[in-house]
Design goal:
Elements (H helix, E strand, L loop, with lengths): L1 H17 L9 E6 L13 H5 L2 E2 L3 E4 L10 E7 L3 E9 L21 E7 L7 E6 L5 E7 L4 E3 L7 E6 L3 E9 L11 E10 L4 E4 L16 E5 L11 E13 L4 E16 L3 E7 L33 H5 L18 E3 L5 E3 L2 E10 L4 E10 L9 E13 L3 E13 L11 E12 L5 E11 L8 E9 L4 E10 L15 E10 L1 E2 L5 E15 L5 E15 L4 E13 L18 E13 L6 E12 L2 E14 L3 E13 L7 E13 L4 E10 L4 E13 L2 E12 L4 E12 L2 E2 L1
Length: 733
């Protein structure tokens, strides 16, 4: 352990040295102040637009970051006392546009679009994001982790209109200042527009971004200069009540239910950078269902949060802990779920909650979250208070250091609450490294958990670095998680590990032919169990080759050498009554995996993956495929299959694990959407159908009709069925 501490200390000194490098901006554009009205019609025919300074001279990002954009894009910015206006004139190749949907929050890879990044606090870490297609379809989101993380579940009020021509399109955007947070008397923001020109398989950006970085990187930004200071951020109070009528029936128990629910959220601005969110009796029945998947590992898989209440500033709460999801002290999806007396995961109602989050000033961020869950005596689930406090300080140009406290506290003295279930607490400190040019990235953290009568040890820690210059990517990762580290509100799929990972990738830029880049990669990851005298329990050694084509298609081949030491019996097929593989034994096996993904801008797309090789002491053959069809601009359909054929020697079980999905997304207009997801799994013996009709009748106000149906597939018959009618309305006071 002493050696581990010494390694961490050396790493910490090194990462602070990297902060010596400063942050620069390469381009500026002035936002002109206006006191006249702008008619938002996607025409830009007001004379004031012609007096605005132009942000032009776009640089290509893909397929080459060494040349100017082939098709010019011009961006103009105006502002009044109440709104920020952005006008875009984009030249295109004559012919059809690439567009897949009229639904808000479209995907960039399947739609021509203009995107806008606003780093209003100029921290190089977080930003607002807005995107518009040539059809005037909008998407918005919160960007965090320096541009590596997008959350487009976030919604605010703004407007956009567009007009289309054969050789160009025009977009007008109006964003109320009341929808944004920024320092008082701001006169500059970091800013960058970029463009997905999928019609010709090109991506362009106003400020050059090196191609080994992400196009959304916040390290490479220009500057938006306002002619006069903006004053205060004045976000209004928003009330978002809902009404939900629900009927359901569990055909397994023949129990039917009908209920009427009301509740809602409130959003209150605190100062120039903080939001206070309140929720009472929240209902998430309108949230899209998770995709099913086959999990052949011994560990839990982390799924994304989709509930609106948890989204704003979610990175401030969720990004503490391990970079590779091996130990997260807080995972918001834990709140609202609990295990019944049989150990099954069931819904646990949230009574209400409060969340205060945002920026205290340019350098400090604060987050406080507290939610109360309900008692369920039938299933012996206690009422719990769930709390997290997070404080983060910017260091250097784009790095930060943060500290947190997570607390789950049982409420009441019910006899089924055992002493060790009374509370769980986790405290810790994280340092997140991001150099000014984004070539150096890393994380260093130490966390400790506390439970009743269990306060010694219980550490989780990591030191990881990524060095990513133009032609290389080099990764070092060291992780230690004590066997008694516990995070009831977190995500910790395994404990009692010491992990060491090494990766190196060499990127080749071809400059000609159909291949844009190709990159060989070597990766080694090994795990040891400290409680077993540091016995090696796992490794994964891989050699891969990645290819990116100039038409945006990709291909990859990966050869892996695997070792797994089972400390206890395990059946990877999860077949009921099957003989598990014996524990206290190691298994070596090799596999070859090949993947190809077609150009996503085409109307017909497909992805296929094949895996061949050994699996524990047997063999495996896997095929995964997905095909998509786009009917521009109003419909897209996809079909996916996943098959795993596992053959183990006697007396162990064989398995043919199969699931299939069908998705349909139909947009009748920019305000009426219908989406359907059907999923079949032979392992779960279930056919599930989720169909959702949504009418956005006013800004951020929706009427949902959601139908869920599940069937047993062994002896085919109904399993569970529900129908929800839900109305939400966003009211600004």
């Amino acid at each position: 352990m002493a050696g581990l501490v010494k390694w961490y200390a050396t790493a910490l000194v090194f990462i602070f040295c990297i902060e010596a490098y400063g942050q620069t901006t390469s381009k500026k554009v002035t936002a002109k102040y206006i006191d006249q009205a702008i008619t938002l019609d996607g025409v830009m025919n007001e004379p004031i637009w012609q007096t605005a300074e132009i942000a032009g001279d776009f640089q290509q990002f893909f397929p080459s970051d060494q040349v100017q954009a082939e098709y010019p894009t011009e961006v103009r910015v105006l502002f009044s006392d109440t709104h920020l206006y952005v006008g875009v004139h984009a030249v295109k190749k004559p012919g059809d546009y690439v567009v897949s949907t009229l639904r808000r929050d479209f995907g960039a890879a399947t739609n021509d679009n203009i995107s806008l990044l606003f780093d209003t606090f100029s921290d190089g870490t977080t930003a607002y994001f807005f995107g518009v297609t040539p059809f005037g379809v909008q998407r918005e989101g919160l960007v965090s982790e320096g541009g590596a993380a997008f959350n487009n579940t976030w919604d605010i009020k703004w407007q956009a209109e567009a007009t289309r021509y054969d050789d160009h399109f025009v977009i007008e955007v109006a964003i109320p200042f009341t929808s944004l947070k920024f320092p008082e008397n701001s006169n500059t923001w970091r800013f960058r527009p970029y463009r997905w020109n999928n019609q010709v398989n090109q991506q362009d950006t106003w400020v050059r971004v090196p191609q080994q970085q992400l196009l959304s990187s916040l390290a490479d930004m220009g500057e938006l200069v306002f002619e006069k200071p903006l004053g205060e951020s004045r976000m209004p109070i928003a009330l978002i009540p809902y009404i939900n009528v629900l009927t359901d029936k569990d055909h397994g128990t023949d129990v039917a239910n009908a209920q009427f629910k009301t509740g809602g959220d409130a959003k209150i601005a605190i100062g120039n950078g903080m939001n206070l969110d309140l929720t009472l009796n929240p209902d998430f029945s309108n949230v899209e269902v998770d995709d099913i998947f086959t999990n052949l590992t011994r560990f839990e898989v982390r799924l994304p949060e989709k509930r609106q209440f948890f989204i704003d500033n979610s990175d401030l709460f969720e990004n503490f802990g391990n970079s590779f999801n091996e130990a997260k002290p807080f995972f918001s999806r834990r709140i609202g779920l609990a295990r019944d007396t049989l150990g099954n995961l069931i819904q646990n109602d949230i009574i209400g909650g409060v969340r205060l989050s945002g920026k205290l000033n340019k350098d400090w961020r604060l987050g406080i979250l507290n939610l109360q869950t309900a008692k369920d005596e039938t299933n012996e689930i206690a009422s719990n208070n769930n709390m997290m406090l997070a404080l983060q300080r910017k260091i250097g140009s784009r790095s930060n250091i943060g500290a947190f406290l997570v607390n789950r506290q049982a409420v009441g003295d019910d006899e089924y609450i055992t002493p060790d279930e009374n509370y769980n607490r986790v405290v810790g400190i994280d340092y997140n490294l991001a150099s000014a040019d984004n070539i150096w990235n890393g994380k260093f953290y130490v966390h400790k958990s506390f439970q009743p009568n269990d306060k010694k040890g219980n550490f989780s820690s990591q030191a990881t670095f990524t060095y990513n210059p133009r032609r290389w990517e080099i990764i070092q990762d060291l992780v230690y998680i004590d066997q008694d580290f516990t995070a009831d509100l977190g995500f910790v799929p395994r404990t009692d590990i010491l992990k060491w990972g090494n990766g190196i990738k060499r990127i080749f830029y071809t400059g000609s032919g159909i291949i844009n880049t190709h990159a060989p990669r070597l990766l080694t990851v090994s795990y040891w169990r400290p409680s077993l005298d540091y016995k090696k329990t796992d490794h994964r050694y891989s050699a891969s080759w990645e290819v990116a084509f100039k038409n945006q298609a990709t291909a990859e081949a990966v050869y892996t050498n695997n070792f797994i030491y089972l400390t206890r019996p395990f059946d990877p097929t999860r077949t009921e009554g099957a003989t598990p593989l014996p524990g206290d034994q190691g298994y070596h096996f090799n596999q070859l995996e090949m993947t190809y993904s077609s150009n996503t801008s085409k109307r017909f797309t497909y992805t296929a993956t094949a895996v061949l090789g050994r699996f524990f002491n047997g063999d495996i053959q896997s095929i995964r495929a997905e095909m998509g069809l786009r009917v521009q601009p109003k419909a897209q359909f996809s079909v996916g299959i996943d098959y795993n054929g596992i053959r183990l020697p006697e007396p162990y079980a064989d398995a043919d694990i199969f699931f299939a999905t069908f998705k349909a997304d139909i947009t009748f207009s920019k305000s009426v959407f219908w989406s359907t997801l059907a999923q079949y799994s032979n392992q779960q013996e279930n056919l599930g159908i989720n169909s959702r009709l949504q009418w956005r009748f006013a800004p951020l106000s929706d009427l949902y009709l959601v139908y869920n149906d599940n069937y047993f597939t062994g002896t085919f018959g109904p399993r569970f069925r529900s129908l929800n009618l839900k109305l939400t309305y966003w009211l600004n006071l």
